[in-house]
Amino acid sequence: MTAVSDTPQQRRVLRSTSKVLPEHARANNRAMVLQLLFHAGPCSRADLARATGLTRVTISDLVAQLMAEGLLTELGGQRVEGKVGKPGTLVGLRTDAFQVVAVDLADDERMHGAVLDLSGAVLERREAPVGGRTGEAAVQALTELCQELVAAATCPVLGVGVGAPGVIDPDGRVLQAPNRGWYDLPLAARLAAVLEVPVHVANDANTAALGEYTYGGASGSGLLVLTVGGGVGAGIVLDGALVQGHEHAAGELGHVTAVDERDDHDQAPLGRPQACACGRDGCLETVLSVPAMRRRIAGLDPAAADAALASVGRRLGIVLAPVVSALNLSEVVLCGPVELLDGPLREAALAALCERTIPVVSSHVQLRMTSLGEHGALSGAAVLVLSGQLGVT
Q1: pTM of model > 0.90
Q2: Domain limits for position 135
């Protein structure tokens, strides 16, 4: 048989781009152990070795290192039913050893922050008014809220996680957030320099998706979390991985044109396309954002308000239909004010989505409110820190 040689293109794709160094393997092993203990609870060293595939010597070294760092503790022995011999000593994650500061900037009126333990339990909450501040003034207000939260922590702070609107790169640089007046802003680096702790910044919809997946019981096979506040964004988790996109802009549904003058058939309830902060007209967030919906229903009686919200929901369903169909999503989760989103808006969105997708796609789709409450993005912001500092998601 004649061997077929690779083309130059094939060789370029298959070639490793960097060396796999010993420290990379150690970091990966460390993250595996912490992730297992985070999700499965206390385990013996033998259980950890079996579950991770690592040798008992490696596990013993890792456990010793993590205990020295204060992340793990021994919990005593437990005999497993059906097994003989000396019971293994259980080790578990010390959820009270460190605390995490989380901030959610999705709301158009207030910044929401919290101090959480490593299990995700909220220990302290703080808020600060946005007051219409944008640009440098908004950065200063955020910095002051973070300083207040770090000071409120009663244990060493593992890090600060911030869910912010806009397109944000993996280093926490806000590439563009029109509603906040932020462009090419190294937000994570600036906060870290002031707070003197690690800071992780990501898109608020992505952080909400991480929170729903990690703490909210959502399936990671096909999940879209839509955050509705001062703007509109979407975080997507497919097969257990957060979708980032080519320019870190996956999920920017808020700036998809949803109202068009040529669209006569559904146009009447929504009116003419409105200008968006991004500079275009008729974007989804010009009708679905919280300020837009509040203006739309102001002064209306309950029946008229329900009809107005249903017209917005229908438009949302039309925008969601191709996304749900293309990705074969199983869950769409709404995060934002319940009084606006749950009810006529959600029902109309689901009906429109089902009208525009084939039954094999739409028959199993859930469109529901978040199980984590209106500010579930705080949980996701905490996950940013757990992932960035411990490798836990």
Answers
A1: no
A2: 99-209+377-390
